[in-house]
Input
Amino acid sequence: MAISRRRFLQHSAAIAAATLPLATATTAYGANERVRVGVVGLNGRGRSHLKGFEGNVVAICDCDLNVMGRVGEKLGEVDLVQDFRNLLDRADIDVIAIATPNHWHALMSIWAAQAGKDVYVEKPVSHNVWEGRQIVNAARKYGRMIQTGTQIRSSGSIKDAVEFVQSGKLGAIQYIVGTCFKRRGSIGKLDKPLVIPDHVDYDLWCGPAEKRELFRPKMHYDWHWDFNTGNGDMGNQGIHQMDVCRWFLGAEELSPRVMSLGGRLGYRDAADTPNTQTVIHDYDKAPIIFETRGLETPPYRDSRVGIVVQCEQGHVLVPTYHDAMAFDPDGKEIKRWTHYGNHYGNFLAAVKSRNHEDLNADILEGHLSSALCHTGNISYRLGEKQPLAEITAAVAENPQMSASLARIVEHLKANQVDVSGPTLTIGPWLSMDPQTERFTDNAAANEMLTRPYRSGFEVPDLSA
Output
């Protein structure tokens, strides 16, 4: 790494959360004053952060020195910092932009808020339900602007489509189907643990998660498919579409009932997240059905990575990150929206206004949509493999789950997956009190609302 032309801040001793400076005042910005950003996590979405905050970035950070060195060489005079905690007490940084693996999102957001920084945090905002709520608490307690990286929330076209549906132009919503159909191959499996290279601070990389040996060939990105650090594709790509489903429905709390079924099918590898999954959130107004497919599959009603809002008098299709179309009962297009927005620009404007209601994706919205992914995964992880006939009988009284199961079976057969035996896992129906965000009927499920944290990396309880 040719990084001698920049200041490089070496790894420092751990900074306990209790010693972090607490935010006691907000910064007043002039109209043309630059908001200074430190970007943490430089693979994947981190590159989008660098582009979105171009001209504002003063420091970059990654546990992997090689990744950071490559990015740093392209940026010019910015600071390179391996341990993000060295950013927290710097007066020349106003915002921490977080594009790390999921298991770090909550604690990093909270520590940044406690240190008086505003935060732009990637989706899902949390690794579990409880810690997502603690980020919301931190934002309100310390008066910080925390934007969720669900950039679809800044799409004017989808905002207009939501208003169109909620105004009753197509009648009442009957159900919403979200789809995350992205081809994902096997991540492989090693016979012995992956050797972590010296240029990676693996203890820091693990942070709040359990420090485990890895039996996959790649450490980066494939953490998505390990429940210790990720949340599967529903919590990776699908969180965008889950958020839009909830937006159309106008649901401002978690679903009162949830159930999931699926499996990791078509290959065997080191991952433990499903590549074939259906989750149903049984809201009183209308159900949200969310389908994930990692094997080759055709779209559902022209939705591959998108949503279909079925109403009494037609439906709305959101097939992309920005566009939306409305159709009458005969399938004729009656309206189309194509108006985009700047999610990063919206965040920077809210940082200056100091009003979290100016955010298009305030952390509360991010928490609720992320938590819908988590509760669906909880049902799945508590499930058991059962014969197809028993699963079919178990969902027979729910027309939407029954139809989704039929689509799963057709999908698996098309991919030469044998579904005759106990292939699919079906999870229990879980009832939740949306006010307390705890399940009312399953102690094991409640234990999975949070996780054990490693010493020095505990997510603080800010509910008081």
